[in-house]
Amino acid sequence: MRGLDLTRADGRCGIKSLLAEIERLSPGAILANRWLVYTECDLCELRIRADVKRIARERGSGFVLWGRATTCRRMGCPGRVTFWVRPHGASGDVAMT
Description:
Blueprint lengths: L11 H12 L3 H7 L2 E6 L5 E3 L2 H8 L9 E3 L8 E7 L7 E2 L2
């Protein structure tokens, strides 16, 4: 898989194509691009790095994180976490919702 070209992602069309590309990314592709993925709890705001290698191993290389949520890892917190990705060259993080 070739890396994503974010140099043209500064206009509306570029952002839409970037988001469409991110939606299709599997953990294997995220690892290949060496992007940071983290989770953030909607209740306690705990932010931790996601173990993408473990996700790929347990869920399969074709599993897609986009639109997924899981329980917070903080003891006693009933919150749900959102996955976030930080693509190289992007001006900010992207919520994978």
